[in-house]
Amino acid sequence: MRPKGTDQQLAARRDRALALLRAGKRPIDVAAAVGVTDRTIRRWRTEARHPKRRGPKGLRPRLTAVQVGRLERELKRGAFAHGYAGDFWTLDRIGQLIWQLFAVRYHPSGVWHVLRR
Q: Which residue range forms the structural domain that includes residue 92?
């Protein structure tokens, strides 16, 4: 269960506990001072020493890897197979194909980035 308090209050309690540990206090004494178990203090100390890597920054791609694979197969079929007069692909045409297949809109420059994946 989540402890009582706002995110800021809980972060302040954790910071206070870490400061007490850095000052040389024993985990059991710090736990009593901030109102948590000594196991929690040990976990906070470990997390402070070895912070977890965060995930990649930025937005997630709008097309999944499976969808990109399907797009590649459709592009290999050629533009004629999709009703275009010339058998060549432009970024605009590929953007229209992405919309038809997946209902996801891309600006032509965004289509270029999808193709580079």
A: 65-116
